[in-house]
Amino acid sequence: MGEQKRKEASKNEFIFGKKNYKFMLIGLACIALGFIVMAGGGSDDPNVFDPSIFSWRRIRLAPALVLIGFGIQVYAILLDPDKSSKS
Fold first, then answer.
1. pLDDT score for 7
2. 84 belongs to a structural domain
3. What is Dmax (Cα atoms) for the chain?
4. Is residue 4 domain-resident?
5. By residue range, what is the domain housing residue 43?
6. Is pLDDT at 70 greater than 80 in this prediction?
7. Distance CA 8, CA 2 (A)
8. Nearest Cα to 32, choosing from 77, 72, 76?
9. How far apart are CA 25 and CA 14, in angstroms?
10. Residue 32, domain member (yes or no)
């Protein structure tokens, strides 16, 4: 009897709601975009200097995108999916 009650009480429920997973995917995409923007800028010859590694998008934009993505991830984890929007 106790076994059956325990099985009923522990239904297979996800920890997060649909809204949480949407925000997690948005955050993951933002982080991936930041790392893609940050990539490249190297030179094939180590004796040749390539100033493109100091471009605005690699120094400012890409790290900002990654940090914004991590912020969205934290928000997605802390978001309460059961909270009604009417109250």
1. 67
2. no
3. 76
4. no
5. 13-78
6. yes
7. 10
8. 72
9. 16
10. yes
Q: Give me 49's structure tokens.
A: 């200097």
Could you tell me the CA-to-CA distances from 67 to 8, 19, 26, 72 in Å, in that order?
A: 41, 21, 13, 9
In angstroms, the CA 69 to CA 35 distance is: 11
Number of separate domains in the chain: 1
Length of the chain: 87
Per-position DSSP letters for 51-79, written without gaps between them: GGGG-HIIIIIHHHHHHHHHHHHHHHHH-
As a whole number, mean pLDDT of residues 24-37 equals 97
Residue at token pair 């100033």: 51
Q: Per the domain annotation, does 63 fall within a domain?
A: yes
pTM over 0.85, yes/no: no
Residue type, 44: D
